[in-house]
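User: Let's play a game. I give you a shape written as C-alpha cells, and you guess the letters that built it. Ready? Here's round one.
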C-alpha cells in the first residue's frame, strides 16, 4: 500500500548544535565525540512526527561516520513505541538509541511502497526450484536526497512512456559497447514488453531531480542465467546498469546511484541477503567501482557472449559498513555498535 508522499521527502540538515528540519522543527544536538550523539525532541506540541524524526536521523547518518544517536528527554515518548516496533530505535542500557545499521533498514524513509509480505511458495525453474515471485511494483519505488549532489535520486518502475528514452540510450555507441542491445524502436518495444511480463525481471528508470539518467534491470538470481553459475539463495538478486546521459558520469554520481540501488533492493525484500553481479571481466572501471562499493570478487566464469566476473554484496556488510555513504567519508568511527553490542554506560562516559 503506497504511503502518503504529500510532504515527502522532508529534508533536514545538521547546523552546529542543532538539526533543522525544513518547515517543521529544530532538534537540539550534543556531540560527545567518537561517533556518539545525543538528540532531544522539540518541545512544541505536534512538532515531532515519525516523518520529522526520520528526516533528522537521516541527516545525521547520511555520511556514515556516526555510531549511535541517543534519544534524550521525555518528548520522544509518544514516538518511541513506533520507533522501537520498527527497529529504528533499540533499547540499550543508556536508553533508546538509533543505530545507522538499523535505521537504514527501515523502509519508511525511502520507499513509498511497503515491502511485499509475500509467502515463500516454490516452483520448478531453469536451474532447479525457486520461489514464486511477488507481483511487480509500479510507479515510484525509492527516493533519497544525495547530500554531495544536493539532488534527489529516485527509482521508478519503467513503463511504456519510457520507450523513446530507452531507445535513444541503447543506440548511443558508448552504451552499445557494453550493453550490446542496439536496434529499432520496435525491437526495443518488444524487448521491454518481454521484461515487463517476466516475473523475475524488473526494469527501472533512475532520475536525478526529475531528470532521467539511467536504466537498471533487476532480476531474481535463481531463475536468471547467473543461477547456473553459483548456488543462488532463494531471494538473491542481481542487476544490470546503463547510464544513458553522458554528463551523469564520474565518482560523484556512481557513489550516488550505486549504493542507492543496492539500498532499494535490500529494502524491497527483507529476505534478500546477497546482491550479485556479472560484469565483463575486462571492464576494469566497473570492477573498480564495484569494489569501492563493497562488492567482493568471487571468481571469473564464461557466458556464451562474454568472460564475466561474479561479484557479491552481502546485506550485513552493506548496512554495518554504512556503504550508502561516500567511500572517502567516515566508515568506522572509534566506537561501532550493532544489535549484538548496544552502547553501555561505560561507552557513554
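Assistant: Ready! My guess for every position:
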Amino acid at each position: 500500500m503506497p504511503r502518503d508522499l504529500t510532504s515527502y521527502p522532508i529534508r533536514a540538515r545538521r547546523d552546529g548544535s542543532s538539526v533543522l528540519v525544513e518547515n517543521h522543527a529544530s532538534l537540539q544536538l550534543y556531540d560527545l565525540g567518537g561517533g556518539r550523539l545525543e538528540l532531544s525532541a522539540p518541545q512544541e506540541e505536534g512538532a515531532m512526527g515519525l516523518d520529522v524524526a526520520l528526516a533528522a536521523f537521516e541527516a545525521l547518518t547520511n555520511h556514515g561516520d556516526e555510531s549511535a544517536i541517543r534519544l534524550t528527554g521525555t518528548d520522544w515518548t509518544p514516538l518511541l513505541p513506533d520507533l522501537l516496533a520498527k527497529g529504528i530505535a533499540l533499547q540499550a542500557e543508556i536508553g533508546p538509541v538509533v543505530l545507522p545499521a538499523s535505521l537504514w533498514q527501515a523502509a519508511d524513509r525511502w520507499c513509498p511502497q511497503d515491502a511485499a509480505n509475500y509467502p515463500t511458495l516454490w516452483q520448478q525453474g531453469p536451474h532447479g526450484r525457486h520461489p514464486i515471485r511477488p507481483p511487480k511494483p509500479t510507479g515510484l519505488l525509492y527516493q533519497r536526497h544525495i547530500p554531495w549532489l544536493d539532488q534527489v535520486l529516485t527509482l521508478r518502475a519503467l513503463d511504456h512512456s519510457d520507450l523513446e528514452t530507452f531507445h535513444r540510450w541503447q543506440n548511443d555507441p558508448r552504451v552499445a559497447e557494453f550493453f550490446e542491445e542496439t536496434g529499432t524502436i520496435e525491437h526495443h518495444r518488444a524487448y521491454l514488453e518481454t521484461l515487463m511480463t517476466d516475473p523475475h525481471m524488473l526494469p527501472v528508470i533512475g532520475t536525478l531531480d526529475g531528470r532521467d539518467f539511467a536504466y537498471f534491470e533487476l532480476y531474481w538470481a535463481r531463475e536468471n542465467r547467473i543461477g547456473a553459475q553459483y548456488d543462488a539463495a532463494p531471494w538473491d538478486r542481481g542487476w544490470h546498469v546503463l547510464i544513458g546521459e553522458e554528463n551523469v558520469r564520474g565518482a560523484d554520481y556512481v557513489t550516488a546511484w550505486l549504493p542507492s540501488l543496492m539500498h532499494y533492493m535490500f529494502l524491497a525484500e527483507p529476505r534478500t541477503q546477497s546482491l550479485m553481479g556479472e560484469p565483463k571481466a575486462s571492464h576494469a572501471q566497473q570492477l573498480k567501482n564495484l569494489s569501492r562499493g563493497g562488492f567482493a570478487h568471487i571468481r571469473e566464469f564464461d557466458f556464451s557472449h562474454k568472460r564475466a566476473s561474479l561479484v557479491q554484496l552481502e546485506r550485513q556488510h552493506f548496512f554495518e559498513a554504512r556503504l550508502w555513504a561516500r567511500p572517502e567519508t567516515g566508515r568506522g568511527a572509534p566506537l561501532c555498535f550493532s544489535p549484538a553490542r548496544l552502547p553501555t554506560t561505560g561507552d557513554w562516559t
